[in-house]
Specification:
By secondary structure, this protein is mainly alpha-helical. It has 21 helices and 12 strands. A two-stranded antiparallel sheet has the order 1-2. Helix 16 (416-428) packs antiparallel against helix 19 (465-479). 51% of the residues are buried.
Length: 545
């Protein structure tokens, strides 16, 4: 009997780091072996598989390792935009102290490569699932789409979910590039630098063990291929399928995944497809999402009422509906950040906005997002009790009265990021008029009533490339606070950042990724991989053992 098995990745090693003495290579991680006969008997094969992959996005591993939202916190804490003033319990403290590179590298590596492993299982199954003419299911899907034919029910369903498989694999590789490569200058990227092992479905068919490091450029090519194919597949086959929940990746989510990857890719001189550079692709993808009108921006009227806790919000594109069965309770984003939930933030381990960034919002005079955060003079200073909270408990902080259900939903992507991608991509291509257009589309919905004059005065300052850049930086930091974009923005655009006084160990410190401390903003490949991947063993020099 054939087995549908995962490729060699260090998932099993990553999950077993708590007992390093037993960290020997496990080619077939527990839970990852499925007999081919069993797979073929499954109803809606790919649908069940993709939801298993999606469950990894919120899988509980500990009170600081609970999937994507914990990685979002790592990003914003390490970059300094999310500040910790106190740490009685120790969760996330290493990141507040600037040790992201040392303490996060194994978790992030195993998290994303586990997702890649699972997508490759699906990819392999599609390649091995052949019809009576010997044509594999993946080719049948592509052939029907290319011809514009009406698919059979099986092909329609498989095509729809195969697109989602490719999308999340491309997204995983893009995230690995963000974490494990140098903080590069946007237009001086070293695309030939060695980066990551690449695995796809055919690798595990051929029992590939330990792929060598591919270059940055090669990994970005893999990201582009996966996500562009995913967009086409999901869009074509969505006419025959209904999206079951926002946990599923739709074509617009895949577009923004690709747009953000191309924004991080950078380099105006590199063309990827159709003679377009990365920034133009990013702008085109973001514009398509905005113009498509499927999602609507969070309006100023609702800015302070949603709590960013409901997946049904019209601006949420991708997210998890947290239920009694899926809540991770104290060990969750809201448990760590929301002072109105019974958990660490409410007990004193407050995570808040950097005080200097808060002062910058105040100084604008017009920005209603200032009300997302408490001031420095209030109890739970600088905490985001106007952004992340359960509306039912908005005015409650007493520990015996706060939320003990932990059912606030997890946001993975919302429409507002499309406007920021479009603005930055246009700016990066020296199209400042377009950049300001998309920036103001967002900011128009963030003005305090009565402060329109101050806002108009601010708009008049956006007359130079540097002024537009600073406005883009500011809006990435403020609009997307707590959503995992801060460190990449720092790597791409800002390079240096002065922290405020409300940090546990980095109060008033200057972050400078162009200095020797820049290594804090790049994780190294875990030693578990370099030791047990035959293609890497004894070939990678680490500076942090």
């Amino acid at each position: 009997m054939k087995k549908l098995t995962f490729a060699f990745i260090t998932l099993a090693l990553g999950l077993g780091l708590t007992s390093c003495g037993d960290s020997f290579l496990n080619q077939y991680p527990e839970g990852g072996v499925l007999l081919e006969e069993q797979y073929q008997q499954l109803p809606d094969k790919l649908r069940g598989s993709i939801f298993g992959i999606y469950s990894k996005l919120y899988e509980y591993g500990g009170h600081d390792t609970f999937g994507k939202r914990s990685l979002d916190m790592y990003s914003d804490i390490q970059s300094g935009d999310m500040a910790m003033r106190k740490s009685s319990y120790g969760w996330f403290e290493n990141y507040e102290r600037g040790y992201y590179y040392a303490y996060n590298r194994s978790y992030a590596w195993s998290f994303f490569y586990e997702i890649i492993n699972l997508t490759n299982l699906c990819d392999k199954a599609m390649i091995l699932d052949v019809d009576d003419k010997g044509v594999s299911m993946d080719k049948q899907i592509m052939n029907v789409m290319a011809a514009g034919d009406t698919p059979t029910d099986e092909i329609a369903l498989s095509g729809y979910y195969y697109g989602q498989v490719l999308a999340i694999r491309g997204w995983a590789y893009a995230n690995l590039l963000d974490i494990y490569t140098d903080p590069r200058d946007k237009d001086n990227a070293d695309l030939d630098a060695k980066a990551l092992p690449i695995y796809v479905g055919k690798d595990i068919i051929n029992d590939t063990l330990g792929a060598p490091l591919s270059t940055v450029g090669e990994v970005y090519d893999r990201v582009y291929e996966d996500l562009s194919e995913a967009i086409d597949l999901i869009e074509y086959y969505s006419q025959y399928n209904q999206r079951l929940s926002k946990l599923e990746i739709d074509a617009d989510v895949a577009r923004l995944m690709l747009a953000y990857a191309m924004l991080n890719h950078g380099d105006k001189s590199v063309t990827i497809a159709g003679g377009k550079n990365c920034y133009q692709i990013a702008l085109d993808m973001a514009k398509a999402v905005i113009d498509g009108g499927k999602y609507t921006m969070l309006s100023n009227t609702d800015l302070l009422t949603t709590g960013f806790c409901d997946v049904n919000a019209a601006n949420w594109m991708w997210g998890q509906d947290v239920t009694v069965e899926t809540t991770t309770a104290l060990g969750s984003f809201f448990g760590q950040v929301d002072i109105h939930s019974y958990s660490y933030a409410a007990a004193g381990d407050t995570k808040g906005i950097d005080s200097k960034l808060y002062d910058e919002i105040v100084a604008k005079g017009w920005d209603n997002r200032v009300n997302w955060f408490r001031s420095g003079t209030q109890q739970f200073a600088y905490c985001p009790d106007g952004k992340f909270y359960s509306p039912k408990y908005k005015h409650v902080t007493a520990l015996d009265k706060v939320d003990r259900d932990w059912l606030c939903d997890n946001v993975f992507m919302r429409l507002e990021v499309a406007y920021l991608i479009a603005a930055e991509a246009a700016w990066s291509n020296d199209d400042y008029v377009t950049a300001v257009y998309y920036l103001t589309q967002l900011c128009n919905e963030r003005v305090i009533s009565g402060q329109e004059t101050a806002y108009a005065a601010w708009l008049l300052t956006l007359t130079s490339a540097d002024a537009v850049k600073e406005a883009i930086v500011y809006n990435w930091r403020v609009e997307m606070w707590g959503e995992g974009y801060s460190m990449q923005m720092l790597r791409r655009l800002q390079k240096q950042r002065d922290l405020g006084s409300n940090h546990l160990s980095r109060a008033d410190k200057k972050l400078d990724i162009t200095s020797a401390e820049g290594e804090q903003f790049q994780c190294e490949i875990p030693t578990s991989e370099t030791r047990y991947n035959p293609s890497l063993k004894d070939k990678t020099t680490l500076t942090h053992q």
